[in-house]
Amino acid sequence: MVESPMLSQNKQPQWHRNMMALWVGNFATGAGASMSLPFLPLFISTMGHFPKWELSLYAGMAFAATFLSQAIVSPLWGKLADRTGRKPMLLRAAIGMTVTSLITGLSTNVWMLITLRLIQGGFSGYINNAYALVASEVPREKSGQTMGTLTTGAVGGQLVGPIFGGFIAGFLGYRVPFFIFSALMLMAALVTFFGVKETFTPLPKQSKAAQQSAFAGVKHLRVVWAMIISSMLIQAATNSVNPIISLFVRELMHNEGNVAFASGVVAAMPGIATLLAASRLGALGDHIGPRRVLIGGLILSGGLFAPMTFVTSVVVLGGLRFFVGIADAALLPVTQTVMTLDTPPSAISRIFSYNQSFQAIGSVLGPMLASAVAGLWDYRFVFLMTALLVVINLIVVIWAYHTDGGDATHKPTITSAK
């Protein structure tokens, strides 16, 4: 039973072929979402004459709406996934985002836009379900590198999306990227339907594993909760700059030149670095333990956000964001790896769904805090706020490992001994 998804008649095991198909789906999801998000404030500015504080508020609400509904429904989807399998959840997310992103491109006012993004959040979750499916099948000694590789799919899409979206938006308008997003999610749905084969045995509804808490079988509870909280804070820090990045770039460029394209390049810079580093840092975590990689990434991240407060050129801003991408490569993939190592397969979708909910909460808090800070003071203070979130994250992670001691069991030679 344990080896059923591993070997097949082909040279590559089934889990590896699933990972490659889901890499394509993650790439499509990352590219589609990112090609429209960096220009959302600019899109909103075409819907009316808003003062700076109002534009910042609407931009924050539009960013946060998707993640707010995602935070509410994710545990329900996760519970359903542990009963029906992860593939149906992947298809649900892909088809739902295909429809909602298409209609979003037809928005006629800011409230219609915000409402549609709220609805879209209820159907989202493709990337997290991809993580859950692969995590339930991958050999544990390869979990770090595999999660890192899967991450490069989403990150690669997030790299291509803003640049391509900026080019398209600059020439064809801000609506077209939403239509392309819809087409990419349709592609993701087709790739998932035909390319993913899941070996899934649902738990009987009356079984003990199905009725008990998702956290009942977790080895190091404090560490897993620290990873969930860390995911929330990482998302808050990463997404906090999204509502203001294009507006800040426009300010740095004095509203001259192709602001949309420049914003896209700046938004894509972390993706370039993460794409190059994620798999390598995941493999490093497999050898030295994820704790060291995670703490190192947090220290680097905090040390990079603070100097962004003082940048005076788009080039310097882009350079600092490139190195933030290296830090990002050591964060989310590692938190996913730790949860994979400490969670029993029967509860992994539920744990990952809780993680997705907390990520969504972070994606709500970050943009809303940033919008408030930018509206009350200035865009630059958003970067100081982000650095503070990273420091809080570092404290949480260090405390959890110090009190729970989970790092010793996160080395492949020990976790596979059982």
From TrEMBL:
Keyword DNA-binding: no
Recorded GO MF terms: transmembrane transporter activity
Membrane topology designation: Multi-pass membrane protein
Keyword Transmembrane in annotation: yes
Entry superkingdom: Bacteria
Domain Major facilitator superfamily (MFS) profile, first and last residues per copy: 18-405
Ranges that cross the membrane: 21-44, 56-77, 89-112, 150-172, 178-200, 221-238, 258-281, 293-316, 383-401
Cellular component GO terms held in the UniProt record: plasma membrane
UniProt keyword terms in alphabetical order: Cell membrane, Membrane, Transmembrane, Transmembrane helix, Transport
Location(s) in or outside the cell: Cell membrane
Full protein name: Major facilitator superfamily protein
Pfam families: MFS_1 (PF07690)
InterPro entries: MFS, MFS_dom, MFS_trans_sf, Tet-R_TetA/multi-R_MdtG-like
PROSITE patterns, A to Z: MFS (PS50850)
